[in-house]
Amino acid sequence: MAATFKGGFHIRDHKELTNTIPTKRVPDCDMHIFPMRQHIGAPLKPLVQIGDKVKVGQKIADSEEFVSAPVHSSVSGTVTDIQQYFHDSTAMVDAIFVKNDKEYTVSEDVCPKDYTKMTTEEILKTIREAGIVGMDGAGFPTHVKLAPRNKVDYVIINGAECEPYITSDHRYMLENADDIIYGLKIAMKALGLSDGHIGVELNKPDGMEALKASKEYGANIHIIALKTKYPQGAEKQLIKAVTGRNVPAGKLPADAGAVVVNVATAVAIANAFKTGMPAIEKNVTVSGDAVQNPSNFRVRTGVPVKFLIEQAGGFKNEPEKIISGGPMMGISQYNTDYPVTKTTSSVLTISKAEKTYDPDSPCIRCGRCVDHCPMRLMPFKLSEASRKDDIEMARKYNILECIECGLCSYICPANKNLLQFIRMIKPEVMKKVREEQKNGK
User: Fold this and answer.
1) pTM surpassing 0.85?
2) Which residue of 104, 173, 277, 423 is most buried, as measured by CB atoms within 10 A?
3) Which of the four pLDDT bands, split at 50, 70 and 90, describes residue 353?
């Protein structure tokens, strides 16, 4: 029986568009753009100036803060500009422009390392210097995640990939299984664990078989079959499915004795030790009904998304929506000028939205949002609190536990966009909580 959590829903996933197509390497791109915000944490400062020559794997931006991760050039060439530019968060952020000389001269700093002969501190430093973050998620620095304050019992590779359309991690399983398990073993050593776990949804049986066939696979690597439903890949839900443990309200996964690392991050960790190359490339899914040839690409960071769409044959229909990420938790974009960053998992192009929302539709009190909420919340009450601008009501119904998966909006038969209202008031609640903590309440 497949492991799972209570709640959730099996959404039509459209993964058949790309899951059987081998990953293609993107051809040379003339200009690469490197935003200096590609992680959660302290902002970075440029280490280069306009006119400087850079090499592949060279660090070009960094911070002295612990919760941060440097950015490296994915090409060799010349720094032509440093200015604000489009970011997939839809904000304008500082970015470094590098004109690709297409020679791909590798930095002298890039060299392999044997993790088996390294201390925990040396492993974490290598991961930090490689700029590795949650490569398909929010971008939390991995060296911080692998240094929890309390002892953990589990390290879990997240192979659920539960968002519709996205298959970039699935292709990693089929094409880079050795790297996934190698990266897991490095994380295991950093955390002092003898066993590691990989959770994979049942809709990827070939992915599970590829992992089991890996030369790195052994008795201490446990592959857990997960029920196919959304949001099985959310950290708290994955931990519940794999370990049976609940992450306490307001706490982190480490407080439940677990650390979760996604598939793309495990591959990046492996590369940082096997070849010494920092986080400068990743798999990206380009999919949806508006693009000519849905595909998975191996992409060097900094490539503009419009160049990526050209490699997929361009648009066959005018897209109504362009989304960075998946349709449930991704961010809608107003153009395709933004570049691929460490956290870009997919580019989704939709001719017509599958569902439209009615802001004036009344709640019919059917309870479906409650039945399917993976956090066991009452989304209709949180939406009501937002409409009333009632911060205390939102706190009463535990709004800060909402993971913003969007399932309540998707499942609502009254076509209410519950998540939109939750997102409107949630920052105000967080601000109120921070003020109370600051004042010692």
Assistant:
1) yes
2) 173
3) confident
Report the pLDDT averaged over residues 275-282: 98
- 3-state SS of the chain is CCECCCCCECCCCCHHHCCCCCCEECCCCCEEEEECCCCCCCCCEECCCCCCEECECCEEEECCCCCCCCEECCCCEEEEEEEEEECCCCCEEEEEEEEECCCCCECCCCCCCCHHHCCHHHHHHHHHHCCCECCCCCCCEHHHHCCCCCCCCEEEEEECCCCCCCCHHHHHHHHCHHHHHHHHHHHHHHHCCCCEEEEEECCCHHHHHHHHCCCCCCCCEEEEEECCCECCCCHHHHHHHHHCCCCCCCCCHHHHCEEEEEHHHHHHHHHHHHCCCCCCEEEEEEECCCECCCEEEEEECCCEHHHHHHHCCCECCCCCEEEECCCCCCEEECCCCCECCCCCCEEEEECCCCCCCCCCCCCCCCCHHHHHCCCCCCHHHHHHHHHHCCHHHHHHCCHHHCCCCCHHHHHCCCCCCHHHHHHHHHHHHHHHHHHHHHCCC
Backbone φ and ψ of 175, nearest 5°: -110, -15
Tokens describing residue 440:
């010692």
Fold of domain 111-274: Rossmann fold (3.40.50)
Separation CA 70–CA 39 (nearest Å) = 9
The gap from C-alpha 399 to its chain's centroid, in whole angstroms, comes to 22
**What are 10's two structure tokens?**
């099996």
Amino acid at 223: I
Pick from 101-105, 128-132, 359-363, 365-369: least confident: 359-363
Range list for CATH 3.40.50.11540 in the chain: 111-274
Task: Give the pLDDT band of residue 441 (cuts 50, 70, 90).
Answer: low
pLDDT above 80 for 25? yes
Going by C-alpha positions, the residue among 382, 152, 143 that lies closest to residue 247 is 152
Beta-bridge mates of residue 59: 72
In this prediction, residues 402-408 reach a mean pLDDT of: 95
Instruction: Name the percent of the chain lying above pLDDT 70.
Output: 100
Average pLDDT estimate for 219-225? 98
Instruction: Take residue 126 and report the two structure tokens written for it.
Output: 């290598």
